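Dear Dr. H.,

I hope your travels went smoothly. While you were away I took the liberty of generating a structure for the chain from your last submission, since the lab meeting agenda had it listed for discussion. I wanted you to have the full record in hand beforehand rather than looking at slides cold. The sequence, exactly as received, is reproduced here:
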Amino acid sequence: MLLPPANWLPQAPLEPLHLDWLASADIEVAILRLDQIDPLISGNKWFKLAEHLKAAERAGADGIISLGGAHSNHLHALAAAGRRLGFKTVGLLRGHPQDTPTVEDLQAFGMQLHWLGYAGYRARHEPGFWTPWQTRYPTLQAVPEGGGGLAGALGCAAIRQQVDEQLPRLGWNDFDAWWLACGTGTTLAGLAIAEKGKRSVYGALAVPDDHGVAPNIESILAHANGPAADYRLIDASRGGFAKVDEALLNFIEQTEQATGIPLEPLYTGKAVLALKRHVESGGFAAGTRLIFVHTGGLQGRRGIAATP
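The corresponding predicted structure, in token form, is as follows:
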């Protein structure tokens, strides 16, 4: 059984985000705490997996095979879901064998790991990449890196409902735009599909341009066959993939002290810093109301802390 029970997803809290630089610009932000929906399968990962699990169930698969790195939030959530729901999981990992807190969890959760090296991992978009793996694991459903694709985006479209149901509690009748970190663009695409052009969706691009986020979003939206989506990508990569610097870490520490909300440096921390710069540059008019999506990934903080 790959599907979670009907009541699998609790409502994530929607909280006002109080920061001096927002108040100075007269910008209101509420943060959707997807990091709090589950201790292991947190953030946007349940949403991205939901439709993939339904597809695997329809196909009669007895598990999932997918890709990620040694700190992958996606593989971590997938392995935890497999252990909890009793289905088989296989992970194809970037690079060469290494011990990280995430990898240790993947093994503890029962995920079978295969290390592809770096050249082997880069081949994941080439035709025929999945053929030998489907031959080796014929009963497993292949899921794209990060739980991406149209199925992952359609699962993320449900995030909008989490917000709509809680707006009255904030005293808001509506809001103007979404702001969230982007690693593959799948969650952004899901929100753009859900919005049908009504509200803008801003993605703080936590990876370099050559990671193909924009083409991935366009491909998903093209297959969705919906109205034109209004979205914008903002560079927040800090100069490269998984780049972390002292200024970013100091900003995260100050923000956590001011709000009490934990962030991680690869995605949510970069997204908040990118929002600050956008606000301070006059990117939003006074009185704008935004929803910031906390996409989780806090388990990855352990890997950053362990880095020499």
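Two observations you may find useful: The mean pLDDT is 91. The first strand starts at residue 14 and ends at 16.

With kind regards,
E. W.
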